[in-house]
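DUF418 domain-containing protein: structure tokens wanted.
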Amino acid sequence: MNHQPTLGQRRIELLDIFRGFAVFGIFVVNIEVMNCVFANQDSYNQQWTSDVDLLAIRIFQLFFYTKFFPIFSFLFGLGISMQALKLHSKNQFTFSFLSRRMLVLFIFGVLHIVLLWPGDVIHLYAILGLFTILLIRASNTFILCLSILLFVFPFYDQIAEFLFNIFDYDPMYYLRDYPSDKIVTTIRNGSYIEGLVLRVMDYLSNLPMLLSILAPIALSMFLLGLYFGKNQLIYSIKEWIIRIKIPMLSIVIVSNVYRILFLFILPSTAMYREFHPFFIKTMVISDTIMGLFYLWLIAWCYYHSATLKRFLSPLRHVGRMALTNYIMHSGIGLILFSSVGLSLYQTLSPSELLLAAILVFGVQIILSKLWLSYFQFGPLEWIWRCLTYKKVFSIRK
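Answer:
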């Protein structure tokens, strides 16, 4: 079937603002891991005791951790559903077309891991996107119930451990030759090829976390985005955000009370040590709710304040090039932290990392706006489109 893209269709500005905001939040979290592997975060942060660094750590904990990955996933699922609905309305919907789109994205993700950074999520999105596509014709009730079930299910760790034991998969095996000091030395002073090998080993070491923690959240949010898109709620979002105002504010107050207890009070109790997995799962749920609240708050500000709308509007430039800007973050991280560039790995304080993320994102807003004044798509978005449609499109306006 000859698929044709909807090149001239008017974009939904709020969705691009959502995407730009999600890209920013993902980078704020990722830059910490780029500077210091996740397993060493707590010990690394303990050396920073100034007021400004302690404040930066609290900002990361309270406003960023585990909140933007669900947003990114929700928007991806929403994007899949909106494209599928457009194709369906033109009698052009085929699994082969959308699966090819996911295949190209998967290749992008694998190259991202090998060449730039092992913390890629878009290869996971591509795999889960195929499953989401299969459910595009399922009933709205089934999609919503499955999303909620996947979200609250508490035994992913146990299932993952069982499966990895069956296949005799030991994640520590892959980093057995990389004690902490060698990781630092390899990233700061090693060759690019040595860094490449470490990236692959690091990815394989973290695969259980990817499959048992991130994958269920991503799939749940994909399905929520699919539900949102199938019901075309994005086109009535102004009215919808008003209807859910009281429930949303109530839920976010309760979740934030729990988050404060989790961060500052519960860890010192015997109950926390006894029921640690339960408290962790509840924290993930709380953070996800907070992330979705961010989207509600942005939408409310967008429609109810002209000043705030103008303030939020520049995010749309980054959002229109979300894939390019997401991958660009890893290139910038490679330059900042590895021997390819400045070799700053495990040298920047939490406050310096936060400032660096804000500055980089500010530059991305400017560059994205400049690029889009001459071109229709971001460079990676253009490549993705051409490979998906098997046709070379003009990139210039």
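The radius of gyration is 21 Å. The mean pLDDT is 92.

Cheers.
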